[in-house]
């Protein structure tokens, strides 16, 4: 998968973007064998001082 900074792999992020909210099946219990459905709230990813990419999206 390509990174937002144009490179690939472990490149540093040069931009800041919003990660949409999503569901995650969080492992828990003995030896992490069970799964618990949790909601991950939207958040910004990238350095605080980087240029922000504002790409609106439609919620269906």
Please characterize this protein's 3D structure.
- The chain is mostly beta strands and about 60 residues long.
- It has strands spanning about 15-20, 20-30, 35-40, 45, 50-55.
- The strands form 2 sheets. Strands 4-1-5 form a 3-stranded mixed β-sheet, with no helix packed on it. Strands 2-3 form a two-stranded antiparallel sheet.
- Strand 2 (about 20-30) and strand 3 (about 35-40) form a beta hairpin.
- The protein is flat, with a radius of gyration of 15 Å.
- The model has no long low-confidence stretch (mean pLDDT about 80).
What is the compact description of this entry?
The chain is mainly beta and 60 residues long. The protein has strands spanning 15-19, 22-28, 34-40, 43-45, 51-53.
**Biggest sheet details:** 3 strands, mixed
Q: In oligomeric terms, what are we looking at? A: single chain
Going across the biggest sheet, name each strand in turn.
4-1-5
> Low-confidence parts, pLDDT < 50 over ≥5 residues?
none
Number of helices: 0
Shape: flat
Determine the N-to-C terminus distance. Answer: 25 Å
Rg measurement, Å = 15 Å
Q: What percentage of amino acids are in beta strands?
A: 35-45%
Element-level helix/strand string:
EEEEE
Mean pLDDT: 81
Helix-strand category = mainly beta
Percent helix among the residues?
A: under 10%
Task: Tell me how many strands there are.
Answer: 5
